[in-house]
Amino acid sequence: TRSAMREFDQGTRVIQEGENADSLFLIKKGEVVVQKNESVIAEISSGSLFGEMGVLFNKPRTASVLCKTDCELIEIPAPALQEAMSRSFHVGLAIETIAAQRSENP
Known about the structure:
Elements: E1 4-8, E2 13-15, E3 23-29, E4 31-36, E5 39-45, E6 49-50, H1 52-57, E7 64-67, E8 71-77, H2 78-87, H3 89-104
Antiparallel strand pairs: 1-8, 2-7, 3-6, 3-8, 4-5, 4-7
């Protein structure tokens, strides 16, 4: 399974808290809002990624993500991420570092 560029309109829910995590997203353009129990916990923009926690730890989504603006996102399916991580120690380390930081500062 390969990564794909996807476009989302402002207000679109990209991830729903509690659903199965089968991919992560890299923000190419735009800004998203991360919500947990309907409360905003973060706003992230171009160059950031989200959805990695569930994919790395094979757990349901811990938060919902909605587009604050029109967005261009690169969706990276779990199998593609696992392949990249197996080929490059640095890719795995970078994503695991981000996940660890987010789990310490939810």
